[in-house]
């Protein structure tokens, strides 16, 4: 059959995607979406009509007998399918919306990576300052005591006393440096703004969609239908949620169950909102649980052991609480609770940009 059926032409006009029918190298028919994309009339040569989208040449130039053909032109993709011995159906897909969405995702990932690194360095500095300040202070006191004892027993040991003086000076200098680090890190306080925890969950999952798909992890969400407003720093809270989700992915990757699962549940209980991130991985031992939130304690081969410590610090900066529990069916569950705003019905909620 070498003609185009009238019913096919009618159906072509009813469809919303850009479609056209070609007779060899001649445009036979095109629907309204195609006319809006590439204005043209029946009887034109296909090569002239499709000239604005140069990448279509690879789809239009191949012989008809070669079957389906594809071509790409910047933000558009073309696909040709033979209808019969003479006629070809051409479909053009507008990729701009998908590319824009993908670019936004990449920008969000890059932004989160930059800010999370900044926050991690800041919190790491605070943890290091706290952990190092005590041994440095103790060392300074020991050196001073040693100097006094040496001065009483051997007052003529001037070289040794001078060396101890320099040691005390160096330790005091180190203590001053740590003090400056603590002052800098403590200045990084949450930027208080109204935000929606439900939106925070969806935004965080969008940044990890590739990881979830690659690991073939089932995601189970139990979220309220209405916004859950809290006051806090969206970037800090997103960093906590991303860290908990990545820990869950690592646990499922380490000892993969038959059907890997991550559950996210958001509960509103009185004045507080509680977010739970659970997995059905291998779980942890009681010994690991006892040191879970201690700095520099990690079960990962290359881990620094600061992730959960920093997360707890960030949640506490929001007057919240972060803790761990075991799932009845096996695996881990991390919870963090935050105070909800006094008026949960406020109409304006800041969506994360």
Widest sheet, order of strands? 2-1-5-4-3
CATH-derived topology of the largest domain? Heat Shock Protein 90
| SS summary, helix count | 11
Largest sheet: 5 strands, antiparallel
How does the overall form come out from the CA principal axes? elongated
Using only C-alpha atoms, the radius of gyration works out to 32 Å
Q: What structural class results from the helix and strand content? A: alpha+beta
Note the run of SSEs as H and E.
HEEHHHEEEHHEHHEEHEEHHEE
Name the poorly predicted regions: 62-68, 344-353
How many strands?
12
The CATH superfamily of the largest domain is Histidine kinase-like ATPase, C-terminal domain
Written overview of the protein:
With 353 residues, the chain is α+β, with helices and mostly antiparallel strands. Helix content is 46%, strand content 21%. It has helices at residues 6-14, 32-37, 46-49, 57-60, 96-153, 158-186, 197-207, 209-214, 234-254, 286-290, 307-317, and strands spanning 19-23, 26-30, 69-73, 76-82, 87-94, 193-196, 218-222, 229-232, 261-269, 272-279, 321-326, 332-339. Helix 5 packs antiparallel against helix 6 (158-186), helix 5 crosses helix 9 (234-254) and helix 9 runs antiparallel to helix 11 (307-317). It is elongated, with a radius of gyration of 32 Å. The relative contact order is 0.09. Mean pLDDT is 77; it is low at 62-68 and 344-353.
Give the SSE map.
Elements: H1 6-14, E1 19-23, E2 26-30, H2 32-37, H3 46-49, H4 57-60, E3 69-73, E4 76-82, E5 87-94, H5 96-153, H6 158-186, E6 193-196, H7 197-207, H8 209-214, E7 218-222, E8 229-232, H9 234-254, E9 261-269, E10 272-279, H10 286-290, H11 307-317, E11 321-326, E12 332-339
Parallel strand pairs: 7-9
Antiparallel strand pairs: 1-2, 1-5, 3-4, 4-5, 6-8, 9-10, 10-12, 11-12
Helix pairs in contact: 5-6, 5-9, 5-11, 7-9, 9-11
């Amino acid at each position: 059959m070498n003609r185009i059926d009238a019913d096919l032409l009618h159906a072509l006009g009813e469809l919303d995607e850009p479609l056209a029918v070609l007779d060899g190298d001649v445009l036979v028919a095109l629907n309204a979406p195609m006319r809006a994309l590439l204005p043209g009339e029946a009887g034109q040569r296909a090569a002239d009509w499709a000239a604005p989208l140069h990448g279509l040449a690879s789809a239009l130039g191949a012989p008809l007998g070669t079957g389906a053909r594809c071509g790409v032109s910047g933000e558009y993709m073309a696909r040709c399918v033979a209808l019969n011995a003479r006629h070809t159906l051409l479909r053009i897909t507008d990729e701009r919306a998908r590319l824009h969405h993908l670019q936004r995702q990449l920008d969000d990932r890059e932004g989160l990576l930059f800010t999370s690194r900044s926050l991690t360095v800041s919190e790491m500095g605070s943890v290091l300052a706290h952990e190092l300040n005590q041994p440095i202070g103790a060392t300074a006191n020991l050196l001073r005591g040693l100097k006094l004892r040496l001065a009483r027993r051997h007052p003529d040991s001037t070289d040794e006393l001078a060396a101890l003086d320099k040691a005390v000076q160096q330790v005091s200098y180190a203590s001053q440096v740590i003090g400056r680090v603590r002052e800098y890190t403590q200045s990084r306080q949450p930027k208080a703004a109204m935000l929606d925890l439900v939106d925070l969950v969806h935004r965080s999952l969008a940044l990890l969609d590739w990881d979830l798909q690659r690991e073939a992890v089932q995601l189970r969400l139990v979220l309220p239908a209405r916004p859950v407003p809290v006051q806090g720093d969206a970037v800090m809270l997103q960093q906590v949620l991303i860290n908990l989700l990545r820990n869950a992915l690592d646990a499922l990757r380490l000892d993969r169950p038959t059907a890997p699962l991550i559950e996210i549940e958001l509960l509103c209980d009185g004045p507080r909102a509680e977010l739970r991130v659970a997995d059905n991985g291998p779980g942890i031992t009681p010994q690991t649980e006892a040191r879970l939130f201690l700095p520099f304690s990690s079960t990962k081969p290359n881990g620094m052991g600061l992730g959960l410590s920093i997360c707890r610090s960030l949640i506490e900066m929001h007057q919240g609480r972060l803790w761990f529990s075991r799932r009845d069916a096996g695996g881990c569950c991390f919870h963090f609770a935050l105070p909800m705003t006094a008026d949960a019905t406020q109409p304006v909620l800041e969506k994360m940009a």
